[in-house]
User: Which sequence fits this backbone?
């Protein structure tokens, strides 16, 4: 029995169970509704009997004519008998059993006796009194009131009224006794109906619970059987994934699981063969690359391994060129017909086709091979006659005939390196789906091998580059001042930190003569070796052209003219030159697109920026730079920095900022310049936390003693 049919039987069984449970529940619910309706009808019977009793009790004193009293009395009797009849007709009484039916019959008999022995004689006597003219004599003042009022004037009224009173008293006594009996019957009926309703609710609850339990048991049993078989399949797969091919999967269930077990055993056998071929393929590639790291040679060995481990008649390897626009033939094994349209001359001979495919690149996205490389999706065509792209290859007996073709992209980390294409040129002999699966596995391993070879070559080159970078970094560090010159009346502190091995920041502090000292701070655009070479050039030119006779603006003008058009258009540097005259206590400042100098006037207690307009050096040869001159007072502070310092990113995502730097310096202005630099350095380290620097940092602080 199929699994779907088994599940359908289970569903049908559960549905029938629920239908039966619902039917029984509805039956009992209907019975409970009937019982409740019976109780409601009993209340109406009691109410109508009470009305009749009230009519009987007030009969003698009611201020109405005898005919009206009779009609009211008769109406209440008929109302009671109607309600009592509806009560007797209720099917709920039958539900409560034979005993209640006997009691009801007894109550009904009592009422019939009251009606026959008391009510009918009373009504007959009333009719007689009305016929004999007593209604006119009594009027509508009430029977007892008429007796007291008319007794002297009409002595003949006393005996009829006394007889009527006796009839009424007897009826009242029997009615009271009947009412008590009816109340007792209804109370016992009400108690039994409550018990019946409670028992019915219990039965309904039990039926619902049993139905749910039985349904859950059926579901659980079915699920456990299915889960057990799934578990057997899972265990078999787990054993297979651990490399154990010795165990077969056996399931005798006469359904899809039994078929699945058979398919699993067949798949296991085919997989074992596939793993053997993959292992052989890997060993062959390993042997080929052990001869040396020659990628073209390795690709030829990889293609040979593809051919050997498949039924292919020929194959090619195409690799993507550096510009990522074309693919070129790198390896060829056997005669590989061009799988695209060529001229009639080319298609005539194998030699012509081989020369053509060797010497003509294929654009990405063109031909069946170019499409596979561009999309990164393998293409498998079992029969060329079934595919419109191989119309030129579908003519049997022709030199260009291809029966079956497979193109496997070589992909690493979503990057397509190239593709391996394999063909079967024997008529009516096609690749199988399993072979194509093996080819894709071979392709993955081949791509990994090629990528490892590329990575090995890059690693060797990278190590050589790192060695050269270390040498260049050492040279760059040696260009920085080994010690800061002593400045009369001033103290200088410096902090610098590179984001990489090669820094784009540069500073220099040197004497122009015995009274003047120059401070240079520079930020070269870019990183690495090009920025470092430009830095060396700037440092060399500045040192060469500096003299006491040249001001800071003159040095920038000469430097800019010397660099422009001698460096690349994308290379330039921002820098500022500060010249301090120790004798005059004077500062000359010139800026070439660099961050402004921060000048702290101790007298005013605030920082103010000092800046001059000017493009970075190396951009425009005709640019003219100017200078600003100002006097220094005791405890004044000068701050020079590169933009990497205020733009340091903190662990919270914010930037360090100039305002933070200024506040920190003001808070510690009484300390020595070396101490201030240390405080700033530690504050930046704490601010950025474990984050790496994004840009190089340089800070120069000059404090007037």
Assistant:
């Amino acid at each position: 029995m199929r699994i779907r049919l088994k599940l359908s039987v289970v569903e049908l069984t559960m549905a029938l169970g629920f239908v039966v449970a619902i039917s029984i529940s509805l039956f009992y619910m209907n019975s409970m509704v009937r019982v409740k309706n019976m109780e409601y009808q009993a209340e109406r019977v009691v109410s109508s009997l009470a009305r009749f009793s009230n009519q009987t009790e007030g009969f003698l004193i009611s201020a109405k004519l005898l005919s009206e009293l009779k009609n009211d009395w008769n109406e209440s009797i008929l109302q009671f008998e109607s309600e009592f009849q509806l009560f007797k007709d209720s099917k709920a009484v039958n539900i409560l059993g034979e005993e209640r039916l006997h009691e009801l019959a007894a109550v009904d008999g009592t009422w019939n006796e009251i009606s026959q022995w008391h009510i009918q004689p009373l009504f007959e006597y009333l009719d007689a009194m009305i016929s004999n003219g007593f209604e006119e004599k009594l009027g509508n003042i009430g029977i007892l009131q008429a007796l007291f009022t008319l007794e002297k004037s009409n002595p003949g009224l006393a005996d009829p009224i006394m007889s009527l009173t006796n009839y009424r008293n007897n009826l009242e006594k029997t009615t009271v006794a009947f009412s008590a009996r009816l109340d007792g019957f209804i109370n016992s009926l009400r108690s039994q109906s409550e018990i019946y309703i409670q028992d019915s609710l219990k039965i309904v609850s039990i039926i619902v619970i049993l139905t749910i339990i039985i349904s859950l048991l059926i579901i659980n049993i079915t699920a456990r059987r299915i889960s057990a078989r799934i578990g057997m399949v899972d265990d078999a797969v787990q054993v297979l994934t651990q490399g154990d091919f010795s165990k077969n999967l056996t399931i005798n269930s006469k359904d899809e699981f039994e078929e699945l077990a058979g398919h699993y055993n067949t798949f296991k056998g085919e997989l074992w063969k596939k793993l053997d071929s993959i292992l052989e393929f890997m060993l062959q590639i390993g042997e080929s690359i052990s001869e040396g790291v020659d990628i073209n040679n390795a690709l030829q060995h990889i293609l040979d391994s593809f051919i050997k481990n498949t039924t292919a008649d020929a194959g090619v390897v195409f690799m993507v060129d550096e510009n990522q626009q074309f693919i070129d033939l790198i390896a060829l094994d056997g005669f590989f017909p061009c799988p695209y349209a060529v001229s009639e001359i080319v298609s005539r001979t194998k030699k012509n086709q081989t020369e053509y495919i060797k010497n003509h690149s294929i654009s990405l996205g063109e031909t069946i091979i170019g499409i596979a490389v561009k999309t990164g999706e393998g293409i498998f065509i079992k029969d060329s006659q079934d595919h419109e792209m191989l119309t030129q290859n579908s003519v049997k007996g022709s030199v260009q005939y291809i029966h079956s073709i497979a193109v496997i992209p070589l992909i690493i980390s979503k990057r397509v390196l190239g593709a391996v294409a394999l063909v079967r040129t024997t008529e009516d002999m096609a690749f199988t789906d399993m072979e194509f699966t093996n080819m894709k596995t071979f392709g993955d391993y081949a791509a990994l091998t090629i990528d490892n070879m590329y990575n090995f070559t890059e690693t060797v080159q990278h190590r050589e580059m790192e060695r050269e970078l270390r040498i260049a970094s050492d040279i760059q560090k040696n260009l920085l001042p080994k010690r800061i010159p002593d400045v009369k009346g001033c103290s200088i502190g410096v902090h610098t930190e590179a984001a990489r091995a090669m820094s784009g920041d540069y500073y220099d502090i040197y004497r122009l003569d015995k009274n003047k000292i120059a401070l240079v701070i520079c930020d070269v655009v870019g990183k690495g070796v090009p920025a470092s070479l430009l830095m060396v050039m700037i440092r060399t030119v500045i040192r060469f052209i500096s003299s006491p006779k040249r001001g800071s603006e003159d040095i920038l003008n000469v430097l800019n003219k010397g660099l422009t058009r001698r460096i690349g258009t994308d290379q330039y540097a921002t820098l500022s030159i500060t010249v301090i005259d120790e004798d005059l206590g004077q500062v000359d400042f010139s800026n070439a697109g660099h961050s402004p100098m921060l000048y702290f006037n101790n007298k005013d207690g605030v920082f103010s920026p000092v800046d001059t307009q000017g493009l970075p050096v190396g951009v425009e040869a005709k640019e003219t730079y100017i200078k600003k001159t100002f006097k220094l007072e005791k405890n004044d502070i000068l701050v020079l920095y590169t933009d990497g310092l205020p733009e340091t990113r903190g662990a919270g995502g914010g930037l360090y900022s100039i305002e933070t730097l200024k506040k920190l310096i003001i808070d510690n202005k009484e300390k020595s310049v070396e101490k201030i630099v240390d405080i700033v350095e530690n504050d930046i380290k704490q601010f950025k936390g474990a984050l790496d620097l994004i840009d190089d940092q340089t800070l120069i602080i000059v404090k007037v003693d």
Observations:
- The two ends are 102 Å apart (CA to CA).
- The chain has a mean pLDDT of 83.
